[in-house]
Write a structure and sequence with these properties.
11 strands; alpha+beta; 15 helices; 22% strand
Length: 357
């Protein structure tokens, strides 16, 4: 017996999958029944539909599809797209990584139907930006000071600098005391009677601590007060526990440092070097880039030697635009390796070249 699959869409609606066809809600019927029409109704004038109970447990009636066959590949694509749209709102993986992970298990047929990668990533960025608007980060509170006209006072007035420091200091309080700390700051600074400082406090309170309060009119013409959560609630930026445990607030040391830290389990000399008090540990971004370039040169030389020794080879090139809107030319090489009956065809990436207009 074919099972019903339920897919939740981003618009709080539902799609159901039955026998590799997809359906959306079409009409409420009597006796708690719902008729759902084929998603291809408009494109292919498909009249296929199913009637289900209210709980979407059983298919009570099924009108067959005459215009098109079932499409398991399209179901795969829809599931992956919905997963990506959901996950991009809950984690901070780059759209490129999210796309690569979620599409890695798609069938060849589904990959053909999938929307172009650039369009998908653009859509994911749009969804994330809508949920997390570009606001002043906690570590850059000084920028907001400049935006509301306190830049000069910040430089000249010690009190203003202390206020900004106290606001940032809320991150070091215990999580349960952050709101109490904000209340204390209101009480301390109320005597200054400075509208600019009051605006800064209000912005910080709404964005990071308590959120906003709105009044709405009820059906009986009364007033109702409800609270909207802050965009960046305290649990996202509070570092009290991390500070006590001497943990980096970002929990991300970068790939290079993470690999070195992992290898200290096997290499005692490396562990001693990294834990020593010496200043020159050779972990700076410049050193990392030098090591990467050296490794790249060695690998490129080995690959070129292989290609030169082969009987024949060909070069493939294609250009693409990365997330920084820079055009890059991708060079790959295909060549034969081996002799006699042991000849193998190889295809390797060679290098990226930036295209300068």
């Amino acid at each position: 017996m074919d099972k019903i699959q339920i897919l939740k869409t981003n618009r709080r609606g539902l799609k159901i999958v039955f026998k590799d066809y997809m359906y959306t809600k079409q009409k409420n019927l009597a006796n708690n029944k719902i008729r759902r029409g084929c998603v291809e109704k408009k494109k292919k004038n498909c009249k296929g539909s199913v009637t289900t109970d209210q709980m979407i447990i059983n298919v009570l009636k099924n009108i067959e599809h005459e215009n098109h066959p079932p499409s398991p590949a399209q179901v795969e694509v829809t599931k992956v797209m919905l997963n990506m749209n959901s996950k991009v709102q809950d984690n901070f993986d780059t759209p490129s990584r999210l796309f690569a992970v979620e599409t890695s298990n798609l069938s060849n047929e589904a990959m053909i139907l999938l929307t172009e990668e650039k369009s998908v990533k653009r859509s994911l960025r749009r969804i994330r930006n809508k949920k997390y608007p570009s606001l002043c980060p906690l570590s850059e509170l000084k920028i907001n000071v400049q935006n509301i006209g306190l830049a000069t006072k910040y430089k000249e007035n010690e009190n203003v600098r202390q206020i900004v420091g106290m606001l940032k200091g809320l991150a070091l309080l215990r999580l349960k005391y952050v709101k109490k700390g904000m209340s204390v700051l209101y009480d301390l600074l109320n005597d200054l009677n400075n509208p600019d400082i009051n605006e800064l406090l209000l912005y910080y309170d709404r964005t990071y601590v308590n959120g906003t309060h709105k009044r709405t009119t009820t059906k009986s013409n009364g007033l109702s007060l409800w609270r909207s959560l802050p965009i960046f609630p305290p649990y996202l930026w509070n570092v009290h526990n991390a500070t006590k445990k001497n943990i980096s607030s970002t929990h991300n040391e970068g790939n290079f440092r993470a690999i070195l830290k992992y290898k200290t389990k096997d290499i005692e000399s490396l562990k001693s070097h990294l834990e020593s008090d010496t200043r020159n540990k050779y972990l700076s971004p410049q050193i990392q880039n030098e090591i990467i370039n050296i490794c790249g040169d060695i690998l490129t030389k080995k690959l070129v030697d292989k290609v030169n020794k082969s009987q024949c080879f060909s070069v493939m090139a294609d250009d693409t635009t990365d997330v920084s809107v820079s055009e890059q030319l991708t060079i790959c090489v295909r060549y034969l390796n081996g002799t006699g009956s042991n000849i193998e065809r190889n295809e390797d990436f060679l290098k990226f070249y930036e295209i300068v207009a």
